[in-house]
């Protein structure tokens, strides 16, 4: 069933009544009556009269209620009214966004619930002289607000858990539009930006919050939010400087540098001393370097964990730290954590640490295959470029690495800039 089929009440945000998708013109008090009946069920006439005409005596209020029923019929919703001498109700087939949102939450379908989050309950609906209705609206709005945030949080968390950070960000942004001062949401927005490799946007989200808090409350952000901002600052300060060749200037590599810069994923093959390291570091400028080392080859994620140890966990998003710390405490320990979760956390850490710069994997021929997988996943998750260097003879002897390389090799469309070994000829 589409959201518009039958009589449908949109109560979240600016309210609207539709019949089979077409908007009905229902004036303020009639809409208030509809919304109340839709959410509260059958209600005695005297309760409704006091609800909507709180400022009038009982007789006048009951007369007004009768007029209101006529108006509802004139609006085209008469067929959905169940009218008796003592009470009013709506047909059970009338649908309400808030009820459907709550039902989706109860079913454990946060995505469907989040799709219905539309804003403040009965926003901009004017109902003069109805103090009792205002009390009800206030209480319902508060509960609806919390339900919507719950739905948006849960849906965004599900997206984040699946690594769909853009969708997670979108959900958190909608939650933020409901409550711009909710710091938990601001931190989630910042985290999502960091996971997407957008630290400048994370900083902008923080600054917007800070400005609003100063204006509206004369206070600053909470310590947890300030701590996250400090991490963003550290990321914006850039990755640890890559080893820059000193002394002799680079000779005769302009064309190779230019060619390398056009590739997103490139493997530079060449014998020891031929100039691979020099080429990729010159071409990349600022870069994060993961280095393969013979001693680390047998350790799953050995090269990557070494990098994390030296780069410092404080530069990784807070939410990743428990998994990363556990991995650092006992690298390669069986049953340490779900392997997929660890791979995902390490890839996200790489995206953060790269902060928009190139990721260089040096001496691939000594790398452990898990680190290579994490680097590929990081490329998928937002690292702009991944360049690998290796000695061809040693790499040919590494069947485990070849297997990982081969898995991605055929996906020319997913890796549009995949370049076959091109350097040196
Ligand atoms: N094009 C070049 N111009 C000047 N020096 C170079 C050039 N290519 C390499 N070198 C120097 O040669 C040495 C070996 O290069 P390197 O990049 O470490 O080789 P590889 O990584 O292939 O083993 C380094 O001192 C490097 O600075
Ligand atoms: Mg080298």
From TrEMBL:
The organism that produces this protein has a lineage beginning with: Bacteria, Thermotogati, Deinococcota, Deinococci, Deinococcales
Q: Which organism is it from?
A: Deinococcus multiflagellatus
Q: Which residues cross the membrane?
A: none
Location of the Bacterial transcriptional activator domain: 96-233
Recorded hits in SUPFAM superfamilies, A to Z, give:
C-terminal effector domain of the bipartite response regulators, P-loop containing nucleoside triphosphate hydrolases, TPR-like
The name under which this protein is listed is BTAD domain-containing putative transcriptional regulator
Q: Which InterPro entries match?
A: AAA_16 (IPR041664), AfsR-DnrI-RedD_regulator (IPR051677), BTAD (IPR005158), P-loop_NTPase (IPR027417), Sig_transdc_resp-reg_C-effctor (IPR016032), TPR-like_helical_dom_sf (IPR011990), WH-like_DNA-bd_sf (IPR036388)
- Which Pfam families did the record assign? AAA_16, BTAD
């Amino acid at each position: 069933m589409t959201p518009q089929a039958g009589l449908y009440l949109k109560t979240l945000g600016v309210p609207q009544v539709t019949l089979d998708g077409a908007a009905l013109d229902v004036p303020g008090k009639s809409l208030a009556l509809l919304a109340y009946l839709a959410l509260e069920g059958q209600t005695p006439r005297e309760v409704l009269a006091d609800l909507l005409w709180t400022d009038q005596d009982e007789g006048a209020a009951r007369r007004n209620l009768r007029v209101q029923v006529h108006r509802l019929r004139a609006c085209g919703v008469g067929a959905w009214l169940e009218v008796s001498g003592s009470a009013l109700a709506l047909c059970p087939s009338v649908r309400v966004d808030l009820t459907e949102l709550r039902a989706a939450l109860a079913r454990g379908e946060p995505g469907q619930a989040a799709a219905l989050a539309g804003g403040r309950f009965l926003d901009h609906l004017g109902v003069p002289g109805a103090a009792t209705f205002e009390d009800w609206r206030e209480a319902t709005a508060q509960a609806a607000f919390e339900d919507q945030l719950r739905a948006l949080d849960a849906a965004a968390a599900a997206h984040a858990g699946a690594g769909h950070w853009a969708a997670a960000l979108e959900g958190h942004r909608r939650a933020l539009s409901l409550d711009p001062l909710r710091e938990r949401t601001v931190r989630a927005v910042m985290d999502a930006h960091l996971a997407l490799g957008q630290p400048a946007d994370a900083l902008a989200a923080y600054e917007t919050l800070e400005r609003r808090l100063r204006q509206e409350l004369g206070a600053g952000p909470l310590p947890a939010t300030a701590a996250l901002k400090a991490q963003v600052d550290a990321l914006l300060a850039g990755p640890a400087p890559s080893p820059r060749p000193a002394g002799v200037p680079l000779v005769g590599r302009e064309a190779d540098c230019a060619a390398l810069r056009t590739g997103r994923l490139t493997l530079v093959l060449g014998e020891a001393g031929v100039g691979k390291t020099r080429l990729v570091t010159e071409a990349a400028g600022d870069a994060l370097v993961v280095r393969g080392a013979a001693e680390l080859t047998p350790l799953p994620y050995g090269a990557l964990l070494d990098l994390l140890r030296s780069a410092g966990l404080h530069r990784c998003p807070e939410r990743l730290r428990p998994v990363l710390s556990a991995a650092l405490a006992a690298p390669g320990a069986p049953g340490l954590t779900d392997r997929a979760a660890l791979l995902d956390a390490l890839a996200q850490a790489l995206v953060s640490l790269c902060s928009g710069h190139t990721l260089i994997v040096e001496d691939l021929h000594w790398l452990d295959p898990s680190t290579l997988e994490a680097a590929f996943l990081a490329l998928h998750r937002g690292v702009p470029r991944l360049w690998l260097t290796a000695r061809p003879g040693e790499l040919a002897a590494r069947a485990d690495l070849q297997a990982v390389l081969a898995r991605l090799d055929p996906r020319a469309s997913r890796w549009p800039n995949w370049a076959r070994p091109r350097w040196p000829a």
